[in-house]
Specification:
8-stranded mixed beta sheet, Rossmann fold, globular, 42% helix, single chain
Length: 296
């Protein structure tokens, strides 16, 4: 089945008003709620290969976080993970849900950690049933940002952002995908379109500050993984140079109660590189948490 274009993806979503900004969210399927939280610097379109099968079992809620994709990209905004968590809760409120499963990737992992921390603090209005995390910087000490990320965080960030191009994004994505599962031209076109639309490059130097937030909030966010009673599964493409096999070692050390699935040869985007493996593992985890038989 061909992938939907970003505009086709958008055509079946809706726009919400969130704190004075227009944000895009795609909602579909039926069953218990499943919140899908995308990573940096892409958007909810990243879930397109998983969407049809997941929608058979869940009501899917996939927002484009503020500054990403089809959502507003205010240039001078003080982007914060806590605000992105609030946005996710606002998107869930559209379905009237009181409990949800979570599937998150990269930047979205950090948003999920914030939700887990709030749940521990009894400050989360939605019950988290089970959380599946894909490759992401769960621990500042194991996160290895690529050159483009390091430059965006530097004083040269605004200049670097203006110089970003489709070719540069393609090179970066090919480096972080697995060697046998590189992104094709359709995927690279989608990544670039979603990043660049509405002057999205200008927001990148402010969005990248999440790396500094991870350091400042390490005790709280890593503690959330360690203290939560919510079942957690990490699915990790171990060939990822950013948060691959080296991060799994640290995860097993610090969060021994969680489950782990390693995907050898897969890079930073398991949901696009190995969608069948991610689907099977996530469905097993969610069904186990709800005491339902896993689909075959």
């Amino acid at each position: 089945m061909p992938l939907p274009s970003p505009d086709e993806w958008r055509a079946t979503g809706r726009t919400l008003r969130f704190r004075g900004h227009e944000v895009f969210v795609r909602i579909g399927g039926h069953g218990p709620a499943l919140l899908l939280i995308h990573g940096f610097p892409t958007a909810g379109w990243d879930w397109c290969k998983l969407w049809p099968e997941l929608a058979r079992h869940f009501t899917l809620v996939a927002p484009d976080l503020l500054g990403f994709g089809f959502s507003a990209k205010p240039q001078h905004h003080d982007y914060r993970i806590a605000e992105q968590a609030d946005l996710c809760l606002a998107a869930l409120a559209e379905t009237g849900t009181r409990e949800t499963f979570v599937l998150a990737h990269d930047y979205g992992d950090t948003v999920a950690q914030e939700l887990l921390a709030r749940a521990i603090e009894e400050q989360c209005p939605v019950q988290l049933r089970s959380v599946v995390l894909l490759n992401g910087g769960l621990f500042p000490e194991t996160h290895r940002p690529v050159l483009a990320q390091r430059l965006l965080r530097s004083p040269l960030g605004p200049l670097i952002a203006r110089a970003m191009s489709r070719e540069g994004i393609g090179r970066t994505m090919r480096r972080i995908f697995g060697g046998r599962t590189p992104p094709d031209e359709v995927e690279i076109d989608a990544f670039w379109y979603l990043l660049a639309r509405d002057h999205g490059r200008r927001a990148m130097p402010r969005l990248i500050r999440y790396i500094d937030e991870r350091r400042a909030q390490r005790t709280r966010w890593v503690g959330a993984l360690q203290r939560t009673p919510v079942p957690i599964l990490l699915i990790d493409g171990t060939a990822d140079p950013i948060s691959g096999g080296h991060m799994v070692v640290r995860f097993r050390e610090l969060v021994p109660a969680a489950s782990v699935l390693e995907l050898p040869g897969i890079g930073h985007y398991p949901q696009l590189e190995a969608p069948a493996d991610v689907l099977a593992a996530a469905l097993r985890a969610f069904c186990a948490a709800s005491a339902r038989p896993a689909p075959t």
